[in-house]
Specification:
heterodimer, A: Cytochrome-c3 Hydrogenase, chain B, 3-stranded antiparallel sheet, 15 helices, B: 68% helix
Chain lengths: 373, 336
């Protein structure tokens, strides 16, 4: 692994360090095997498996209602969207038409989840580049969303609000009011985010031109979500394959072309605005009706293969189900956004400094349980 | 009592007093930082132990004293144990020179300001030793960064203070303060003095390894940097020294730019004992400024740190010295 190079009679030796599994910048139990030369990164090798829980194997054992609960534990920051993905797959297979009310509520909560996830990411991004204060500002706004969720379904993070065929409960009477209050509040806070971090000259110097990912590479590595969109690859599942009530709203896909760390940052800030506008469009028009259609107690999918993809806060989440007609899936595969996004880390981080690696990794927005299922 | 014995007794008493100042100031600064940080971060901060949490850091110190001292097996034991003392001695010695008031200064030597700079750069040896002897790769990276950083920014600290020495014509701290009876040096030297002050604050923040120049610790990059392997009181030495160094940088800035214990426009000249109050007010205002930096700015990258020093601060400083020399030569200073 070590390699000796001689420059001007000065022997320089490459140096190997372990970043993680316990390291503040890896946000969980990701282990990076770094080969560095002084401060310069020569090679990044992610080592996974520290929190592998065999979720896909467990899915083969469980009924479809139970699978929904497992997906919370994958990307815990967009648990609602994960739940929705499984429910949509099951509904697609059963050819079940859910009421409009369910669709709208699912979309509103999905977008709120995205805002909460991006708030957390923003705080952590600031912390990774050394501005500790951002963390608390991000969490302040995320807290409001979590409170709304708590009132709606009793849980703040692993929500389990979706069930195949609709929602577990109807929304709380306060829901609309509180979401409206949040919209008013958050509209004044995004400019604050910009003033605190985006416009900071040190932050811009740290992120501009760092970790550049070209559009071709984004496609070939299978990147999705904000990471791909920052490289100019338009791939928003919400736009191209709208699900739930997303076909009823108008929004623009956040796109940047530079592909550097700053572009990925800007895309996420733009997504905050877009998600807010989606919620704003839907919150006044939640149709009346049932919150759930009855399904059989034991759901048996017809024999066949089903695929449904959704846009989580991190990118494209695909659920692929092979059913043999029994109450369990024969095989269930998740296409998680984080895994593909992590795979390009070595490609974009090599040649940068250790500080660059941390900033780049922050903008990939890795959630390790999502990568290590 | 023979004269020598009396002198030694005096020295010991003064040393004990200064150790007291050192620990009380250190603990208070830690408390202040926590409350200021909390204020910036929408939190409350420690407010349970003692009045408004004033004794919180005292309790923390007790905890650290009673903790086991751990270390790595393959560490170089001698250097590993020696390192914290370098750091703490350098800041203690610097503290002795600070003119808290007209009579409250442990030793006032004729090369005062030069001695301050020289002494405060001993600390980096402790950091380098600690990082090297810990036998930890992260510590070593932190220590090397520290070496690079301190050597670079030492120049700017020295040069910006030298700019002010041109005005006073003396390196002795008490004389530098006397000159300021005709107006604080930052007013006397106007434009170049303000530039020198800004450069000094930037370089001083870098010199104390605080954010946005906390490359040495860089929590998100290196875990805890050079003091990763230190625990208990040895860690506390590094920790306290960092805060005292911040206090010293603020105190030097107060002395050199803001008239040390002198009140603004001599409003309390008839009450000389108020000097220490004025000194502390000014110093803590500057300490607050440094805390403000820390809790607002992101961290620079290593290469940007060096670019800032060698490509911007140093040339600005050199030009500034020439400008200041011209101003002093042409007697363009402002005196009240």
């Amino acid at each position: 692994m070590q390699e000796t190079t001689t420059i001007n009679n000065f022997k320089s030796e490459e140096y190997f360090i372990n970043m993680g599994p316990q390291h503040p910048a890896t946000h969980g139990v990701l282990r990076l095997l770094l080969t560095i030369d002084g401060e310069i990164i020569k090679k990044v090798e992610p080592d996974l498996g520290y929190i592998h829980r065999s979720i896909e194997k467990m899915c083969e054992r469980d009924s479809y209602q139970q699978i929904v609960h497992l997906t919370d534990r994958m990307d815990y920051l967009s648990s609602h969207i994960n739940n929705e993905a499984v429910c949509l797959t099951v509904e697609k297979a059963l050819e079940l038409e859910v009421p409009d009310r369910v669709k709208v509520i699912r979309t509103i909560i999905g977008e709120l989840t995205r805002i909460a996830s991006h708030c957390l990411w923003w705080g952590v991004m600031g912390m990774d580049v050394g501005a500790l204060t951002t963390y608390f500002y991000g969490f302040r706004d995320r807290e409001m969303i979590n409170d709304i969720f708590e009132e709606t379904c009793g849980a703040r993070l692993t929500m389990n609000y979706n069930v195949p065929g609709g929602l577990m409960w109807d929304i709380h009477p306060n829901f609309v009011n509180r979401v409206k209050k949040f919209i008013v509040h958050f509209k004044t806070k995004i400019p604050e985010f910009d003033r605190l971090l985006t416009e900071n000259i040190i932050f811009q110097k740290r992120t501009k031109g760092v970790g550049v990912l070209s559009k071709e590479d984004a496609i070939s590595f299978g990147a999705s979500g904000p990471v791909a969109r920052a490289s100019g690859y338009s791939c928003d599942v919400r736009k191209y394959h709208p699900y739930s009530a997303l076909d009823k709203v108008t929004f623009t896909e956040a796109l940047q072309t530079q592909g550097d760390t700053f572009a990925r940052y800007v895309v996420r800030i733009q997504e905050l605005w877009e998600s807010l506008s989606i919620v704003e469009q839907l919150i006044d028009n939640i149709p009346e009706g049932e919150h759930r259609v009855a399904t059989n107690a034991v759901i048996k999918l017809p024999k066949g293969e089903y695929y449904q993809k959704v846009e989580t806060a991190r990118g494209e989440l695909g659920v692929y189900v092979v059913s043999t007609g029994t109450k369990n899936p024969y095989r269930l595969k998740f296409r998680s956004p984080g895994f593909s996004n992590l795979s390009l880390l070595n490609h974009i981080a090599v040649g940068g400094k250790i500080g660059d690696l941390v900033a780049t990794m922050a903008t990939l927005d890795l959630v390790i349980p999502d990568i290590d299922r | 009592m023979p004269e020598t014995a009396a002198q030694i007794t005096e020295m010991i008493i003064i040393a004990i007093i200064y150790l007291g100042i050192f620990s009380v100031a250190g603990l208070f600064l830690v408390f202040m930082e926590r409350r200021v940080a909390a204020w910036f971060q929408l939190r409350i901060g420690p407010n349970r132990v003692g009045y408004q949490g004033l004794l919180q850091t005292m309790a923390d110190a007790l905890k650290l004293v009673s903790k086991e001292l751990t270390g790595t097996v393959k560490a170089d034991k001698f250097l590993y144990n020696l390192a914290p003392y370098f750091v703490i001695i350098s800041s203690l010695m610097a503290l002795g020179l600070i003119p808290f008031s007209k009579s409250f200064q442990a030793f006032d030597i004729n090369i005062g300001i030069f001695f301050l700079i020289a002494v405060s750069s001993i600390g980096v040896i402790g950091i380098l030793l600690g990082g090297w002897a810990s036998n930890n790769k992260y510590s070593l990276i932190g220590a090397m960064r520290s070496g690079v950083q301190t050597i670079s920014y030492e120049l700017s600290v020295g040069l910006s203070l030298l700019t002010m020495v041109l005005l006073t014509g003396s390196l002795q701290l008490s004389e530098m303060v006397e000159v300021q009876k005709h107006g604080w040096l930052i007013l006397q030297g106007h434009i170049p003095a303000v530039i020198a002050f800004m450069v000094f604050m930037i370089a001083g923040t870098a010199e104390t390894n605080r954010a946005p120049f906390d490359m040495v610790e860089a929590e998100s990059e290196l875990g805890a940097g050079f003091h990763t392997e230190y625990s208990g009181m040895k860690f506390a030495y590094f920790f306290l020294a960092e805060f005292i160094n911040m206090f010293i940088i603020a105190a030097i800035a107060t002395t050199v730019f803001f008239g040390a214990w002198l009140s603004p426009f001599g409003i309390t000249e008839s009450l000389p004992w108020l000097g220490i109050i004025w000194f502390l007010i000014k110093t803590f205002a500057l300490v607050f400024l440094m805390m403000w930096f820390r809790w607002t700015f992101p961290r620079l990258r290593v290469d940007q740190l060096l670019t800032l020093e060698w490509k911007y601060l140093l040339p600005i400083n050199l030009v500034n010295i020439v400008v200041m020399a011209l101003i002093v030569w042409q007697k363009l200073t402002i005196q009240f």
